[in-house]
Amino acid sequence: MPDYGHPLEFGVFLPPAADQFDETLRLAQAADVLGLDLVSVQDHPYQSAFLETWTLLTVIAAATSRVRVFPNVANLPLRPPAVLARSAASLDIITGGRVELGLGAGGFVDAIAAMGGPRRTPAESVDALGEAIEVIRTLWTPGRGVRFSGKHYSLNGAHPGPFPVHPIGIWLGAYKKRMLQLTGRAADGWLPSSPYAPPEELAAMNQIIDDAAEEAGRSPADVRRLYNIGGSFTGNGFLRGPAKVWVEQLAELALTEGISGFVLMVDSGGEDHLRRFAEEVAPGVRELVDQERTMLSRTEEPPVLTAEPDRLGVTPTQDDGRRLSKERLWDESARPTGPPPDPDAVYTAAGRTNGQHLIDVHDHLRAELSRVRSLVKQVAGGALDVAAARSEINTMTMRQNNWTLGAFCESYCRLLTLHHTLEDTTLYPRLRRGDARLGPVLDRLTEEHHVIHDVLERVDAALVAMVRDPNGITEVSAAVDLLTDTLLSHLSYEERELVEPMARLSIRA
Asked: What are 11-33's pLDDT values in tens digits?
């Protein structure tokens, strides 16, 4: 799946338990102060232990100043869409445009029926939701008395209004095919939860949304993708581990699955969890995604290639053979090679651009590595004091609060790791499908990614040691030398083997 380019947003999913109202309000206010974008509350009107969602959202909105609030997601069968439209628009007016609308078809049929709501089949629930979206949008559109005749909902001369002061997004909690198709056809956003839509299932669900959007004459980018997530800052696995792990995993979802909103599910007493998410995870994900987007945007303009259509006209970067470290982590002579170029192959301008694109991305990584080396050398030689180092780093592709050598090296290492992850999960499978003969080469490249990851861990360890002992800059220099040897060798090998098939198969990095 592509990166749809939406700005990243981060929010919180709060418990509406009646006996924990003070704690819920305190967490909402903390989210506002910490700079998060969204505060949401689940909506189960049949749950007697829960506060009524719109009442709670109104109080939260009054007690905060910048976060947008929304039900995550509103239980449609118990909330007539005409009234829901007026409720959402009213709160949007009162808050100055701080309301979104999460909608769900209603999954607990018996509980809904116990409250006097309709007992619908799954198919009827999807149809009703589609009608509800039309009713809501109609009442948000200026005009005279309107009529709408549906199987589940109708308008019989109702007057539109009041009107939201900003375009309220209608985000659907959807998992099954028909709901996902409705999301693609009619919704502004998709809002699944990770326990029900784990990361490995997002691609297939996204594809259904994209196909439905295109069939309806929309762009897939018209649908924002948000994700309710939970996790722990300990352990292993998806969103299990230190903040750095969260950053890498969420950035990967943003760049490979198009997720642009992450909403953290927080239990009562979870203020520390919320704070780490806001102060460590959210800025880190934004930084990493910004870096990758910037790197890609620098290569968006097709290069000027003057070769004839039947010639490749793209030159991979040669490995000059120089090595800085005595340590060798792999046998370069054992690297497999791909099939020789077909003398009759025809390379289009678009195909050659794909090959050049890989080189351009690698050139950016080479340039960033040179910056790291230069800074390490100057610090080791005493040529830079702290003030001068800060000034130097300020010119690099970093956020302004990353003023230390360690912060820059960590930022670069995360970017490189993400680049390799994207290759392993998107580029290589497409190449393997396009030409099975590339299998041994792709396997070797993936193995080298793991080796380089271990070298990056050495750099991290050396930086940690340098904090305790300033003389540790020697170890940092040695680790960066080894990173230089392995990375430059790997990039040249990858270009030598993949530039031609990427151009021949018209596969973009």
From this structure: 999 989 999 999 999 999 999 99
Give residue 393's pLDDT band: very low, low, confident or very high (50, 70, 90): very low
Instruction: Give the three-class secondary structure for 101.
Output: strand
In whole angstroms, give the CA distance from residue 181 to residue 212. 5
CA distance linking residue 441 with residue 434, whole number of Å = 14
Q: CATH for 332-505?
A: 1.20.120
Q: Please tell me the pTM assigned to this model.
A: 0.69
Q: Using CB atoms within 10 A of its CB, is residue 229 exposed (0-12), middle (13-18) or buried (19+)?
A: buried
Distance of CA 82 to the CA centre of its chain: 34
Backbone φ/ψ region at 222: left (φ over 0), alpha (ψ -120 to 50), beta: alpha
- CATH level 3 topology of 9-282: TIM Barrel (3.20.20)
**What CA–CA distance (Å, rounded) separates 146 from 154?**
10
Distance CA 142, CA 149 (A): 19
CA distance 375 to 372: 5
pLDDT digits (tens, 9 = 90+) for 24-61: 999 999 999 999 999 999 999 999 999 999 999 999 99
At 339, the pLDDT band (50, 70, 90 cuts) reads very high
Q: Where are the domains of the chain?
A: 9-282, 332-505
For the ranges 114-128, 173-187, 469-483, the lowest mean pLDDT is seen at 469-483
* Sheet with strand 170-172: strands edge to edge: 68-71, 38-41, 9-14, 259-265, 224-229, 189-190, 170-172, 101-104, 74-75
Instruction: Name 463's Cβ contacts closer than 8 Å, sequence gap at least 6.
Output: 405, 406, 409, 410, 476
Q: Is 317 exposed, middle or buried (0-12, 13-18, 19+ CB in 10 A)?
A: middle
Token pair 């049929």: residue? 109
Q: Which two tokens stand for residue 508?
A: 């973009």
Q: Identical fold at 9-282 and 332-505?
A: no
